[in-house]
User: Fold this.
Amino acid sequence: MSTPAKTTSQKPARGVDLWGGHFEQGPAPLMEQINASIGFDKRLYAQDIAGSCAHARMLVKAGLLSATEGQAIQDGLAKLKAQIEAGSFAFTAELEDIHMNIEARLTELIGEPGRKLHTARSRNDQVATDFRLWLRDAIDASDRLLQGLQASLLARAEEHAESVMSGFTHLQAAQPVTLGHHLMAYVEMFGRDRGRLRDGRARLNECPLGAAALAGTSFPIDRAMTAAELGFTQPMANSIDAVSDRDFALEFLAAAAIAAVHLSRLGEELVLWSTPQFGFVRMAEDFSSGSSIMPQKRNPDAAELMRGKSGRIFGSLIGLLTTLKGLPLAYSKDLQEDKEPVFDAVASLQLCLAVAAAMVAGMSVDTARLHAAAGVGYTTATDLADWLVRAAGVPFREAHAIAAQAVRRAESLGCELAGLALAELQAIDRRIGAGALEVLSVERSVASRTSFGGTAPAQVRQAIAAARARYL
Ligand code: ARG
Assistant:
């Protein structure tokens, strides 16, 4: 969508009198400033024009416009669309919003038929329709970006299906996992984000047009026709609901906020992992920045901003919830505040999704470092306890205590679990046999986690194949 031309405050010689001569005075400049939405809702121009085209065709079919009038409206709207996209359409705040800017200019262009277009509709159902159409497209674009991020994660997961690293709980070394498994966790999260967007899209996809101001209309309109023309599944069932609610925007923002949480956690891990202390990954140069004072720095700014922008998206959700919570039915001008938070959240979400995909694809992974850190912190202590259960019939609670003693012994000797001699282990519990030594390596540990959804490379490869089939 090209950028619409800038808003001017030039006095328009409009073919319409906004309030039908009911007002003697124009608005105060401050009134105009608080009231006008054209500065941001001009982004809805394509949807507004599509809605008007569908409405005009329906009016012709219903016998409320002649075919000639209908054609003049279609041609005029097409011209206006081209003007907007060429940047030659002068939006004006005097005409408040996108709906009146377009209608007034259409009337200037084609005369009388332009003045008939608003039959059987109101800006209230118009704006609700435009916004739903806009958000539907934004949801589809977001879904494609989420898919792109999943593809990027899947490629790296496949590459590292066997790369052993430490998994963490409490950010303390916990048990060995593979990097592939860890990355696949995000593939699942982003998959559910796509599901949430899809669910919300289905509920969003009903058409408010024809609800008019709030009560419906006395004209014999065909709401099913306009709904179908605009790609909606059906007209909304209640005219008051149609112009009042913005739950579709809330649902999107809630889904976006959850996706932003996932992006933020991924960003946080990349920030952490790219420190010299972790050293698990190195962000590509083109997604890092240096320091103006410290020559050695490579800062993960993009990952940090991915984490940081989540706050804006949460803010959009909370802001719109707050705007809506006390509103009596039906339309109140407060509802005009619905658009900017959604526009901002869509922009932030889409940018972060694209950045995340590129960062994941471009980062280099230090597998040697990952491997070296995988066993640090006695991460195979559970494997020793499991071995005692499996091979020696020791109850798990007791096995847990024996393995804890082994950890203490290794700590006092300053070695890892795999560094303990069999005699040392047998001194702790004589039931520990030679077989136990084998389970203490990180590779064996990881390979043993073959339960469904577990980190064994064979399981990870299966999970990758399943996710490719499901998501890509
Ligand atoms: N610009 C308005 C909005 O965004 C359009 C609807 C105006 N309706 C009205 N009754 N003033 O909500």
